[in-house]
Amino acid sequence: MTADLGHILEYWDREDVESMYDKHLLNAEIELIRRRLAPGLKILDAGCGEGEGTLAYSMLPGAKVHAVDFSATRLRKAAACVAGRDNVTFQQVDFLKPYRLDRDFDAIVSQRFLINLPAWELQGRVLLELMDHLKPGGRLLILEGSQPGVDELNGFRAACGLEPIPVKWHNLFFDDEVLVAFMRERGHPLAEVDGLGAYFLLTRGVRPLLDAKLDWNCEFNRRAAAPAVESALRLGARFSRLKLWVFRK
Ligand SMILES: C[S@@+](CC[C@H](N)C(=O)[O-])C[C@H]1O[C@@H](n2cnc3c(N)ncnc32)[C@H](O)[C@@H]1O
Q1: Which end of the chain is more exposed for a tag (fewer CB within 10 A), N or C?
Q2: Can you tell me which atom of ligand 1 is nearest the CA of 110?
Q3: Residue 106: inside a domain, yes or no?
C-alpha cells in the first residue's frame, strides 16, 4: 500500500515523534557518514529531522551545513539541537514541491529521508535532483533502507524462530539492484556501499533470543554498536536494514 503524502507530513509534524528511537543506531549511522566527510565541505543535509546528524557534520573543521526539511516541527527541533553554531543554516523545503537550493554542494547527505517518499518514481526523481545540486566531483551519501537487507535479516530471524521485522507504514525501502542500476544508467556509478550489518544482526537477530524486552538503550546494544565489533565481524552491508550508498557526480 502506498502511504499518503499528507499523512506523512502530519506524522513528522507531531511533537512526540522521534526520527530514530535507537540512539546507538543513530550514532553509528552518523559515524558511518561522518568519517567519509573531509574538513571544509559545503554540505546539504536533506531531510535533517531533529538535527543530530546536522550537528555532527557541522563540527567538522571548516564545514558549512545547510539543513532542510519539510516539517516545521523537525526544523525547530534541529535548530535547538545546533543552537550556537553559526555554520548551519536552515530552510523549509518539500522535495516534492518546487524549491530553490544552491547547486554547488560538495556533499549531500540523505539519512533515512528518501525512504519517506512513498513511490519509487518519486525517490528516483529526487535522487537525480539531489545529484543536480552537487558541484562536479561532489558526492551524494544516502543512508537509507534496503529491502534485500530487511529480507536477509528476517531470513536469519526466521531460522531462529523469530517473527519478521516489518518496514514501517510511512517508509518505502530501496531494491539495491534497481537503485544502483538506475543511478549507473544516468551517469552516476556507485562509488561505495557499506552498512551496519554487525549491529543489525546482533541487536535484531541475536539479542531477541536472549531477551524479548525491547530496550534500545541497553548495554548489549551499546556494546554491539562499537566500531570494533563491526571490524571484527566485517558484515558491512550484509544483514543491514539500512545501507550507505555513495554516488559521485
Ligand atoms: C526518518 S527522518 C530522518 C531525519 C534525520 N535525517 C535523521 O537521520 O535522524 C526523515 C525526515 O525526512 C523528512 N521528510 C520526509 N519527506 C520529506 C519531503 N518530501 N521533503 C523534505 N523533508 C521530508 C521528515 O520530516 C523527517 O525529518
Answers
A1: N
A2: 6
A3: yes
Element (H, E) at 67: strand 64-69
Domain that holds residue 244: 5-147+167-198+237-248
Q: pLDDT per residue over 73-104, tens digit each? A: 999 999 999 999 999 999 999 999 999 999 99
CA-CA distance, 228 to 196, in Å (whole number)? 12
CA 176 to ligand 1 centroid distance, Å: 20
Convert the pLDDT of each residue in 21-74 to its tens digit: 999 999 999 999 999 999 999 999 999 999 999 999 999 999 999 999 999 999
Number of domains in the chain: 1
Ligand 1 atom closest to Cα of 20? 9
Residue 19 lies in a domain: yes
Query: Is 208 inside any structural domain?
Result: no
Place of cell 535507537: 22
CA distances from 16 to 20, 119, 134, 168, 233 (A): 12, 26, 34, 17, 36
* Backbone dihedral angles phi then psi of residue 120, each to the nearest 5 degrees: -60, -35
d(CA 209, CA 212): 7
We report the CATH number of the domain holding residue 60 as 3.40.50.150
Q: Is 69 in the pocket of ligand 1 (CB under 6 A)?
A: yes
Sheet holding 42-46, edge to edge: 88-92, 64-69, 42-46, 105-111, 134-145, 242-248, 190-195
H-state helical runs in 93-224: 120-132, 147-159, 176-185, 197-200, 207-210, 219-224
Instruction: Report yes or no on 43 lying in a domain.
Output: yes
User: Which residue puts its alpha carbon closest to atom 13 of ligand 1?
Assistant: 47
Contact at 8 Å (CB) between 62 and 40? Answer: yes
